[in-house]
Design brief:
Helix 16 (384-394) packs across helix 17 (426-433). The chain contains 22 helices and 20 strands.
Length: 572
């Protein structure tokens, strides 16, 4: 059997690509080819560094601990060279994510290469510096997926049509091939490696229910796509791997619910999700736009929208959304805090801008949700009007029923701190996310106490980024609202003196003080969270009070005009 020539692969690698032909030829004779089955470790954390590796085909993952995937290594990338140079033990575990082929360069051969060709060290230095810079910028993410296993729950699911539509939707981000049992059954790992090298994405599709082919699909996949017909009774998948995160390992699991109509069926996601345990993504698919969104989400090209809290000033979100829609911006995931969560939920429902504006005008301006004053044993208001307002707007929707993936931020005073809500009654968690301490009573749920998420995270771009969203648009209702006074005092004067001084001395009001105090804690972290946004919009709203709902039109107009200006500057 002839010895393969790897010089072409070496020329494309970051570590060795700068070497001259003589050095590459010398290196080629020192490399040892071997195969590594999917799931098998290449080396483990704490082991001595005795070699470096170049990935020819397949995929490797760097793990910190048993399951925490730090970075994904694609074909052409190297691994292990930094520990080889430093002489330290391995800092991370590297495991084959699917059947892979590698080239091994032992320590002795590497040291001889550096001795004969000192410029070889330059490539290692470049790789080391690049990885350090990614770490410092918090950009060392697992990486985007390339291979998908589409495994329907049963043969009744139109999986082939879905796979072909998804492949077309992936084309803007790279070529995509669909391989089914007819083409792939009985093939060796080299055949699959060759097909994966020819295109950017591969969808491994099962339509027959053949357990051997489904097992091959699982071994080859970076991501598991699990389609089911939403209206059918929920049932378990034929194999155990998709159902348990311990078996699926690092691979994200995406439950794909196919709907006959545009709107998701109420309760379908809850029923089907009950078949799984652990972290699971789900998607409602009713038309081509939903498939395009699925393609962006699973391929690492999704666009997220994050909306901040800010009381009445938050109505500026509606103006910003109008300008963004006019400019053609489309969002695949939505998150927010307080009123930002409430307006974001409308986006996740698929409401049009005009519908949202009218709904929130009636809710906040006419509905006056903070007008049910009570004896302030818990808060200044009962919170009943606010709850009724949210229930009228969103009805019986669960967060899982929303068209777009959605989360809102709450603060748990029972020891949990910031809690990201992704499941359960939508109105309830919106009510909790907007429970301004002292103004609205907290939400008491299953023995725990929840208040306004703005106390911990008023602009949750960090949560959106951790979901793997590539581009984040954030609308921040800045919390730097200064409460100013013309008084010099340490105690409140008698009521009759307050009335006399009302026109001459400026004092902060009770509601303004409570709302402002609720946001102070999140201000310093928000500066960092603003930096996480790819497109940041901060409308000037100093002329609008935090509870001045009567100024709703001015708030919307300010958000609209400012967003137009930001988008115009971005195009220059």
């Amino acid at each position: 059997m002839p010895i393969p020539d790897f010089t072409g692969l070496l020329r494309q690698s970051d570590v060795f690509g700068h070497l001259d032909a003589e050095a590459l030829a010398a290196l080629d004779h020192q490399l040892v080819w071997f195969g590594l089955p999917g799931g098998r470790p290449l080396f483990k954390q704490g082991e001595p560094a005795d070699a470096m590796y170049l990935l020819v085909s397949g995929s490797l993952g760097l793990f910190d601990g048993p399951t925490d995937l730090v970075h994904l290594i694609a074909a052409g990338d190297s691994v292990g060279e930094i520990s080889l140079v430093s002489g330290e033990n391995r800092h991370l575990t590297v495991r084959a994510l699917r059947d892979s082929e590698l080239l091994r360069l032992d320590r002795g051969a590497f040291e001889k290469l550096v001795s004969d060709h000192p410029q070889a060290m330059l490539g290692v230095a470049r790789v080391a510096i690049a990885r350090l810079q990614r770490r410092l910028r918090n950009e060392d993410t697992p990486g985007s997926a390339r291979t998908f296993a589409m495994l329907p729950v049963d043969a009744e699911v139109p999986a082939r049509a879905l796979a072909m539509q998804l492949a077309m939707a992936l084309e803007p981000y790279g070529s995509c091939a669909v391989i089914d049992a007819e083409h792939g059954a009985g093939r060796g790992s080299d055949w699959f490696a060759e097909r994966e090298a020819q295109v950017r994405f591969v969808i491994y599709l099962d339509t027959r229910g053949d357990p051997f082919w489904r097992e091959r699909c699982l071994r080859q996949a970076d991501v598991l796509l699990l389609p089911a017909q939403a209206a059918q009774p929920a049932r378990s998948w034929p194999e155990v791997t998709p159902l348990h995160p311990s078996r699926a390992g690092h691979r994200p699991r995406h439950l794909i619910l196919l709907h006959a109509g545009r709107q998701p069926s109420l309760g379908a996601a809850h029923r089907w999700r009950a078949q799984f345990c652990g972290e699971l993504h789900h998607h409602h698919i009713g038309n081509q736009a939903d498939i395009a969104r699925l393609a962006r989400l699973v391929s690492g090209h999704a666009r997220g929208l994050v909306l901040a809290g800010g009381g009445a000033r938050g109505l500026a979100h509606l103006g910003a959304l109008r300008a963004l829609k006019e400019a053609g911006h489309v969002f695949d995931s939505v998150g927010g805090t307080s009123i930002g969560a409430i307006i974001g939920a409308g986006v996740a429902c698929g409401w049009e801008i005009g519908e949202m504006t009218e709904t929130y005008r009636r809710a906040f301006v006419e509905g006056r949700p903070l007008s049910d004053w009570t004896l302030p044993l818990v808060a200044l208001t009962r919170g009943r009007r606010a709850a009724l307002m949210l229930r009228r707007a969103f009805g019986a929707l669960d967060i899982e029923d929303l068209t777009l993936p959605f989360f809102c931020i709450t603060t748990c005073l029972s020891g949990d701190g910031m809690v990201v809500q992704r499941r359960g009654p939508l109105w309830l968690w919106l009510r909790a996310s907007s429970a301004i301490p002292g103004v609205l009573p907290p939400v008491l749920h299953r023995g725990r106490v929840y208040i306004d998420g703005a106390v911990m995270d008023n602009l949750p771009t960090d949560v959106m980024a951790s979901d793997g969203i590539a581009h984040i648009t954030a609308v921040d209702i800045r919390a730097d609202i200064s409460l100013l006074t013309t008084a010099e005092e340490y105690a409140t004067p008698p009521w009759w003196r307050l009335l006399m001084q009302r026109q001459t001395i400026q004092r902060p009001g009770l509601l303004s003080t409570l709302v402002r105090a609720a946001m102070v804690n999140s201000e310093e972290p928000s500066a960092h969270r603003r930096e996480r946004a790819n497109l940041l919009i901060t409308p000037p709203l100093e002329h609008i009070g935090m509870l001045d709902w009567k100024d709703w039109q001015r708030a919307i107009e300010a958000g609209y005009l400012h967003t137009l200006k930001v988008l115009e500057n971005q195009q220059r």
